[in-house]
Specification:
206 residues; elongated; Ubiquitin-like (UB roll); 2 domains; DNA polymerase, domain 1; binds FE2/S2 (inorganic) cluster; 40% helix; alpha+beta
């Protein structure tokens, strides 16, 4: 978040801000660099498209989906409005809360700050794609068991961030969990329950 604020202060345009900061989440600078590099290789920005709707295909939760979107559409808008995957929440819609966290090629990103057109052939995973064969992901079960949700607006983003942590680090410490969720804001203050749930899910997965 600190770096996002620096970008705003430099006075870039909204589009420039979205391009520069859109593929970050929770202030994870390493991830920002990796995904932006891919964006440069693969993006369609050199072609002129729009301003009207364009047809694109997107791999979401393992299925190829055909969408008709305006080039200005964010990934969050495309997921919610075009595919009706409303589990991805839009709360601030400006990269400040991470409620809209999804994975793009296994990297957590803020979907409200990512242009849908820039996803290209990368694989998107949303909260709806975490369960397998009708069975909830262990972190989803742990959130239920540990009462880690109140109003629920931050919950999908929290789960996508913590599930990613467990993929990368099966033995997280409390500090690791806090670090992984540092960009996820919960107005209801469920943080202690989120931390307990994540550590419990890690034990269960072992
Ligand atoms: S960061 Fe996307 S809705 Fe807040
Ligand atoms: S549960 Fe309400 S914002 Fe987190």
């Amino acid at each position: 978040m600190k770096d996002d604020k620096k970008i705003i202060k430099k006075g870039v345009s909204r589009r420039g801000f979205l391009k520069g900061a859109g593929l970050t989440t929770a202030g994870t600078i390493v991830l920002q660099t990796g995904v932006l590099a891919k964006t440069k290789e693969n993006s369609v920005q050199s072609k002129t498209v729009g301003p009207g709707p364009v047809n694109v295909e997107m791999n979401v939760n393992g299925k190829t989906r055909s969408l008709t979107i305006e080039p200005r559409s964010t990934l969050a808008q495309a997921l919610r409005d075009e595919i009706q995957l409303t589990g991805t929440k839009m709360v601030c819609d400006r990269g400040a809360c991470s409620a809209c966290t999804v994975w793009v090629d296994d990297i957590p990103v803020n979907a409200c700050m990512t242009f849908a057109m820039d996803v290209g052939d990368r694989k998107v995973v949303t909260i709806e794609g975490l369960a397998e064969n009708g069975k909830l992901h262990p972190i989803q079960e742990a959130f239920i068991d540990h009462d880690a949700t109140q109003c629920g607006y931050c919950t999908p983003g929290m789960i996508m961030s913590t599930a990613h942590l467990l993929k990368e680090n099966p033995n997280p410490t409390l500090e690791d969990v806090k670090h992984a969720t540092r960009g996820n804001y919960c107005r209801c203050g469920t943080y202690p329950h989120v931390f307990k749930a994540t550590l419990a899910a890690a034990k269960k997965i072992k």
